[in-house]
Predict the structure.
Amino acid sequence: MVKSIVSRIRSLKKEKNAVILAHNYVRGEIQNIADFVGDSLELARRAMETDSDVIVFCGVDFMAETASILNPEKKVLIPDPGSICPMAQMLKRDDLVKAKEAYPDADLLLYINTLADCKALADCVCTSANADRVVEAMDSDTVIFGPDRNLARFVEKRTSKRIIPIPEYGLCPTHHQISVDDLLLEKSKHPGAEVVVHPECVIEIQEMADCIASTSGMARHCSISDADEFLIGTEIGLIYRLERELPEKRFYPVSETAVCPQMKMHTLKKVEVALELERPVVSVEREIGDCAREAIERMLRIS
Ligand code: SF4
């Protein structure tokens, strides 16, 4: 059954000149058939570079929107349109308008985990892979930053800028629930393991880590580190990629419950149907897309 779906996906891809891009958190079965698996920054770059006519985006809504913004002439499909990032939903355009009024001289920098109508108001966008570099490159000494308050704390500690987080309680539910108790328990079970975490984790977890990086940065760290055991503090989908790429090393999740349900919504069957029917299509209103593209392209130039 799985074999026949996979071979159907392969032939549809060829027939439609399609590419499958997948985030590090999606199910293993999707990672196996994807043309590229990576973090938000890498996926944005791949989306911009592809010469395929159709992009099947296996990630959450804001990622597929970003691919569409960078490729308005291409067809971007999202196999399950219910794959909506709760963190991106926490920031509204009105919050940004108010923040810009309150801090008229500040730069507005948004995490890529935001919807297109918010990106359209931003001076620049960043990902977890480049947030500190992009913050430092902003013109103003004060930077309005949203929506993840944990990433905001991360950049605040690493840059010389004053960071104004918006909204006050923006966070990723999947990362925010990884607790210090979880980490202490896993450290007691694997005392020799390096601790590698994502900056969406709470600051107390970040402070206990040997490495803090985006998902692909975490994978790079594990590949070059001399250690052979790692405690991984992020969504558990990354462990599938790590075990596939580095079979000689051992990876343990800091929390088994760090699962993003939205990332797991894409299945092989849904990818097959999306390719077959060429829908659901992700599109962004032209005017919003043009403004948002400027903010994304500025990030790509900086990083
Ligand atoms: S892991 Fe967190 S930030 Fe990423 S898509 Fe899921 S809810 Fe959003």
About this structure: The pocket of iron/sulfur cluster is lined by residues 25, 60, 85-87, 113, 172-175, 235, 260, 262-263 (CB under 6 Å). The chain has three domains: 2-84+263-284, 87-172+289-302, 174-253.
